[in-house]
Write a structure and sequence with these properties.
The structure holds 2 protein chains of 2 kinds. By secondary structure, chain A is mainly alpha-helical. Chain A contains 5 helices and no strands. By secondary structure, chain B is of the alpha+beta class. Chain B starts with 5 loop residues before the first strand and ends in a 32-residue tail after the last helix. The chains are: A mainly alpha, B alpha+beta. Chains A and B meet through helix 1 and helix 4 of A and helix 10 of B.
Chain lengths: 118, 273
């Protein structure tokens, strides 16, 4: 049932992406409604400011994990439908695993580095 | 009421692998009347106009699933489809897509049957002695029959597979027919083989590859709903992967009949033998 578990994670990551992206979008664009107190949440200074808070770093890293998994698994599904070669599929699997890990380290480095430089 | 006879043009796709390098269309004029089916038209062509036309047919009553073909670009059973349904004087007939053509309208359904066989479409039990030499029926309540009944109406005509967009793009996809039957046997209370069947459906080209287009259910001439079966199968797989699933044993055989004494004594015969 390995592929079923991967699929369930895909569904879970969709929910996670919707929740954390929702938080991100709400804070960025519903400033007046939520009354967060920030003058311009989309400004560079506000973004850097959030990235130095551990709560926001956790939210952004979780959003990254969910969105990355959802995107790569979805793309793999499309490629899987276009090729019947098991060899090609194995290559795609490894490419996505290695690529995903590299993108994750690269993208999570910035908020982690900012938080540690606080 | 006198039946109104008319003529219809059949545009039939022809292809003989021994002679033709590519597919081509050929037109035939066929007399029709009320109730004439596509299959009647094809039989008329074969008997009167061109005996080399190849198509598959057997029961002529929508039971055997032999005469699936593309009529006016939609998959139908030729014996189950009347010409007047199309309200057109031109009927285009092509072989089912998503299957290799043998000749003209006859396609090779073996890949579909192989996929069907791969999901173990039979009752799997642990009581091997009873399976080898059955003594009695297995107990099954009406509700338990209802859980899989509609999926057992599948006649393996291949129409669902020909309508499926995933089968069109992924040659290894198990397809709505096999996956629907996979659920049919997993849902059977007499069966104990769900675990091994679900492992097969869990493959790269298995149930999770279904996009739920629903074309299979719409096209099925027997009213089976393979798309729904696949959704139920996915649920079974998800539950199984999380450690759930059916815990009760498969249905037992009926207990042996017991000898009972009649409560009311039957009066003796008044007329001696």
């Amino acid at each position: 049932m390995f592929r079923t578990r991967l699929r369930l994670l895909f569904l879970l990551s969709a929910v996670g992406t919707a929740v954390f992206l929702g938080i991100h979008m709400a804070v960025q664009h519903l400033n007046n409604v939520l009354a967060t107190g920030e003058l311009d949440p989309t400004s560079w200074a506000s973004t850097i400011g959030r990235a130095t808070q551990s709560g926001w770093v956790v939210i952004y890293i979780l959003l990254l994990v969910f969105a990355l998994y959802h995107a790569l698994y979805g793309l793999r599904g499309i490629i899987l439908e276009l090729t019947t070669s098991e060899k090609a599929l194995r290559a795609v699997n490894w490419l996505f695993i290695v690529g995903g890990v590299i993108v994750f380290i690269w993208a999570s480095y910035v908020p982690l580095a900012l938080m540690s430089s606080r | 009421m006198a039946e109104h006879a008319s003529k219809v043009t059949f545009r039939v796709q022809r292809y003989d692998p021994e002679k033709d390098s590519q597919l081509h269309m050929q037109e035939f004029t066929v007399p029709t009347k009320r109730g004439t089916t596509i299959l009647d038209g094809l039989i008329y062509i074969k008997e009167n106009l061109d005996s080399t036309l190849a198509f598959r047919t057997s029961c002529r009553m929508g039971i055997c699933g032999s005469c699936g073909m593309l009529v006016n670009n939609y998959p139908h059973l030729a014996c189950h489809t009347q010409i007047e349904e199309f309200h057109s004087n031109v009927i285009t007939v092509k072989p089912l897509p998503n299957a290799p053509i043998i000749k003209d309208l006859a396609v090779d359904l073996m890949p579909m049957f192989d996929r069907h066989k791969s999901i173990k479409p039979f009752i799997i039990r642990n009581d091997e002695d009873e399976m080898a030499k059955p003594t009695r029926e297995y107990e099954q309540l009406p509700d338990e029959v209802e859980a899989f009944e509609q999926f057992s109406y599948c006649i393996k005509c291949g129409i669902c597979v020909s309508a499926c967009p995933t089968s069109a793009s992924d040659a290894k996809f198990l397809g709505p027919q096999a996956l629907g039957q996979c659920y049919r046997y997993c849902a059977d209370s007499r069966d104990a083989g769900a675990k091994e069947r679900l492992e097969i459906a869990d493959s790269n080209h298995g149930a999770w590859h279904c996009h739920l287009a629903g074309a299979c259910s719409e096209a099925c001439p027997k009213g089976v709903d393979p798309a729904f079966a696949i959704q139920l199968l996915k649920r079974k797989m998800a539950v199984q992967s999380l450690g759930g699933g059916r815990k009760e044993k498969p249905a037992e055989i009926y207990p042996p009949p017991t000898e009972t004494k009649p409560k009311i004594q039957v009066p003796p015969f008044t007329v001696k033998k």
